[in-house]
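Let us practice reading a record.
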Amino acid sequence: MAEPLLKVSGLHAWYGESHILQGVDFEVGKGEIVTLLGRNGAGKTTTLKSVMGIVGKRQGKIVFDGEETVGRPSDFIARCGIAYCPEERGIFASLNVEENLMLPPVVKPGGVTIDEIYKLFPNLLERRRSQGTKLSGGEQQMLAIGRILRTGASMLLLDEPTEGLAPVIVQRIGEVIRQLKARGFTVLLVEQNFRFAATLADRHYIVEDGRVIDMIKAADVERSIDKLHEYLGV
């Protein structure tokens, strides 16, 4: 394997006195889709926030595209080319769809244009003058993903993008993630819906009690299904 785009080694993270991550290790190659799987509270979202530099305290090593980012502020990390789509989506209710899309700054060349975002998510084109408060949950999720594509980021951190959404919307988001991979994007995905994750990911890391305890390649999922059920409690 070539030098990974993202390499996380011995990562610890805290919220106040709570020691959430207890030495996380994983890597993501350029152009890969990699998932973090695990039960609620395992540390998956905290891992994404740690990569993005938005937790209280971090220790360990996070190297992105050859650049050590532990100790650097989140705006520096964003300018390196990492974008984060949080589970709560963070849509600005007082802005319409197009205003939300235009809000994040472009940090690098090569981002997806507004017209291309509308081709990926036709629903957003139809609702481009609608306020954030008037969008369905699925439309808000499309907007949250579309918004980070303009920035020029090469790596996308997606936290539970299918949570609570109708199957037709889940299917569309899966199609978009595949298209983004085909365009060269790298995706680190936290996802409770293993069936969805299994159709997309090259590799799955299992997170438990703030550590990565296993890695399963896509080709090995079928023979590892009993182990996965045990890990995930499904």
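A brief commentary: The longest strand covers residues 18-28.
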